[in-house]
Design brief:
- Helices cover 13% and strands 31% of the residues.
- It is an alpha/beta fold.
- It has a domain of 89 residues: Cupredoxins -  blue copper proteins (Immunoglobulin-like, Sandwich), CATH 2.60.40.
- It has a four-stranded mixed β-sheet, with no helix packed on it.
- It is elongated, with a radius of gyration of 25 Å.
- The relative contact order is 0.20.
- Strand 6 and strand 7 form a beta hairpin.
């Protein structure tokens, strides 16, 4: 009886070890794609961190890249000043480390917001000639 119990315990122990008590290999995270910046354009980064968006003042023909530096999902979404008008960009949900770019080609004041956290994540980008 004791011998059969010992055999059962040994078989169970070996089964558990074989089933994955080892450390799994880390899944490599692919690098973010390099944003396309048209010839002659300026490139600017804007961080989403600590549940805040940045106010920016940029020139026409600037590409802005938003980077999610928080540990939660965020968006960057243009809020048009006129109702019924479609926004110019919507990043969709950006996971931590995710990026989104938009090329500003016209002067103006562009309001934008995180649709997940609109109360405290809203800002403007002022584009000048």
């Amino acid at each position: 009886m004791i011998r059969s119990m010992a055999v059962v315990l040994i078989v169970l122990s070996l089964s558990l070890v074989a089933c994955g008590f080892s450390n799994p290999e880390a899944t490599p995270v692919p690098p973010s794609p390099i944003p396309t910046v048209p010839a002659g354009a300026t490139f600017v980064t804007a961080e989403m961190s600590e549940f805040l968006h940045e106010d920016l003042e940029i020139k026409v023909n600037t590409v802005v890249e938003w980077i999610n530096k928080d540990a939660t999902l965020h968006t960057t979404s243009h809020i048009p000043s006129e109702s019924g008008v479609q926004g110019l960009w919507n990043s969709g949900r950006l996971a931590p480390g995710g990026t989104f770019t938009y090329h500003f080609q016209k002067p103006g004041v562009y309001k934008y917001v995180c649709l997940i956290h609109p109360v405290n994540m809203n800002s403007t980008i002022t584009v000048t000639e």
